[in-house]
Design goal:
The protein has 402 residues and is α/β, with parallel strands linked by helices. The protein has eight helices and 19 strands.
Length: 402
C-alpha cells in the first residue's frame, strides 16, 4: 500500500499574513505499498462462515487495488488458533479434549496452497511463489475444509504473536511493510497465561464460557450467571488469561507508527453477550453461531479495523478491505491542511485536493475525524485512482503548520 512521507513543514509565525519561517520537519522516506497480511483462523469450529465469506475475496483485492490501480506487494499467511495446552508462563500440561502439546505452534499453515513457502508472496512486478490466481490461493488458505479438530480453547491473540515472530516464521514480516491482521473465529480469545486454567474446576461451563469468566469482566461481575451482560471488557488482572494489553504493546513494538497496523475480525459482536441456563455463552446463533469476541474486539478497536458479525457476514471483506485501505495515511501536525502540497514521486505530479471523500483521484484527502492520528494531528491520505504506480513510488507532502 502507498506509504506517504512527510518531507517538510513550515511553522507559521505571527509576523504577518504571508511571513513564514522555513523550519524543517523531517520524516523517513520509505518505499511504497508493501503489505503483510496475517489471517488467524479458528480451526476448532464449523467452517460455514469462512466458506461463505471466501466467495467475497474479490471484494478484498478490489479494495486494495482501488487505491492506485495495483495490488500491494503482498505477503499473506495463515495461522490457526490451536496452541494446544501451552501457556505464556512456559508450562504445559496433560491433553484436554482436542488440546495437546503446543498444537500448531504458531507456524504458518499452507493447507492445500501451491505456494513454495509457508506464505503467499505476490510481489509487484509479477514475481510470485505460487501458481494460478491470487484469489483462488487465498481461498485455499482461508477456507480450508481440512482445518478442523483444533483445540477448543483457542488462543488467537497468542497465535498472532507467535506467527509474527521472525524466529517462528522467517521472512514473513517485512520491516517496511504495513501489517494487516484478520481474525476469523467463532470464539473469543483464550490465550493462556497458565495451563493450570484448563484443569481448574472452580470455573464451570463450556470452553467459551470458562474462557469468558477468566478473561472478561462485566457489570456486574457475574460472568457465569445466566442472563444478558453489560459493559463487558477484558480482565487485565487475570493470572489465568493473558491481558489484552500485552498484545497491544507487542503490536506497537513492531512498527514505528500505529497507523502501519490494522486489525480486523469476522467474529461474534462484542456488544451482544448472553449466558444461557445451560452454561453456554452466545453472541449470535446464525451461520453456525458465535460467542462474543470481547477480548479480540478490544484489540481491533485499538488498531482501527472493524468487527464483522460472523452470524451475518454480508460484505465482510468489503468492510475489512475498506478499513485497510483507509490506513494509507500520513499524520501531519497541523490544523491548516489547506496549505499542503502533495506530490506523487512516480510521475512528479502535484496532486490536487479531493473534491469529496468519494473522489476517485488522483487527489489527496485531509481527515481529522478518522481516529488514525492523534488529537493534535490531521490524517492526509492519497488516492491514486486507476493510474498504476511504480514499485518504488511514494507520496510526499509539504505543509505549512500553524
Amino acid at each position: 500500500m502507498n506509504r506517504i512521507t512527510l518531507l517538510g513543514s513550515v511553522l507559521t509565525l505571527a509576523l504577518g499574513a504571508c511571513s513564514y519561517d522555513p523550519h524543517s520537519y523531517n520524516g523517513d522516506e520509505i518505499g511504497a505499498r508493501n503489505m503483510d497480511v496475517l489471517f488467524v483462523l479458528d480451526d476448532a469450529t464449523d467452517h460455514a462462515n469462512y466458506d461463505a465469506i471466501s466467495q467475497q475475496l474479490g471484494d478484498l483485492t478490489a479494495s486494495l487495488t482501488g487505491i492506485d490501480g495495483q495490488l500491494p506487494s503482498l505477503h499473506v499467511g495463515v495461522v490457526t488458533t490451536d496452541l494446544g495446552v501451552s501457556a505464556t508462563n512456559g508450562a504445559g500440561g496433560a491433553a484436554v479434549g482436542a488440546c495437546t502439546g503446543t498444537g500448531k505452534g504458531g507456524k504458518l499453515q499452507k493447507f492445500t496452497s501451491t505456494a513454495t513457502d509457508a506464505y503467499l508472496s505476490d510481489e509487484r512486478g509479477g514475481t510470485k511463489n505460487f501458481t494460478g490466481d491470487l484469489a483462488a490461493e487465498l481461498e485455499l488458505l482461508t477456507a480450508p475444509t481440512t482445518a478442523t479438530g483444533g483445540c477448543e480453547y483457542g488462543q488467537p491473540l497468542e497465535a498472532m504473536r507467535q506467527a509474527l515472530d521472525e524466529t517462528v516464521n522467517p521472512g514473513f514480516v517485512r520491516d517496511d511493510a504495513q501489517l494487516q491482521v484478520v481474525f476469523l473465529t467463532n470464539n473469543d480469545d483464550c490465550s493462556l497465561a497458565s495451563a493450570d486454567f484448563l484443569t481448574d474446576s472452580s470455573i464451570t461451563g463450556d470452553p467459551a464460557l470458562r474462557c469468558f469468566a477468566a478473561g472478561v469482566v462485566c457489570d456486574p461481575d457475574d460472568a457465569t450467571t445466566p442472563g444478558k451482560k453489560r459493559n463487558c471488557h477484558p480482565r487485565e488482572d487475570s493470572n489465568k488469561i493473558v491481558p489484552v494489553g500485552d498484545y497491544v504493546d507487542f503490536l506497537d513494538g513492531l512498527k514505528d507508527q500505529r497507523s502501519d497496523i490494522t486489525v480486523s475480525a469476522v467474529a461474534g459482536l462484542p456488544s451482544a453477550v448472553e449466558v444461557s441456563g445451560f452454561g453456554t455463552l452466545t453472541s449470535c446463533t446464525g451461520n453456525g453461531g458465535a460467542t462474543p469476541a470481547v477480548r479480540t474486539g478490544t484489540l481491533v478497536s485499538e488498531f482501527g479495523g472493524t468487527v464483522v458479525d460472523s452470524c451475518n457476514p454480508t460484505n465482510a471483506y468489503k468492510q475489512i478491505g475498506g478499513a485497510i485501505s483507509a490506513r494509507d495515511t500520513l499524520c501531519v501536525p497541523t490544523t491548516d491542511v489547506e496549505r499542503c502540497e502533495v506530490k506523487d514521486t512516480s510521475s512528479g505530479a502535484t496532486l490536487s485536493k479531493c473534491a469529496s471523500a468519494t473522489d476517485a483521484g488522483p487527489c489527496w484527502l485531509a481527515d481529522t475525524g478518522s481516529g488514525q492520528c492523534g488529537g493534535d494531528q490531521t490524517a492526509i491520505r492519497a488516492k491514486r485512482g486507476t493510474a498504476p504506480a511504480t514499485a518504488d513510488s511514494h507520496i510526499q507532502a509539504r505543509c505549512f503548520i500553524n
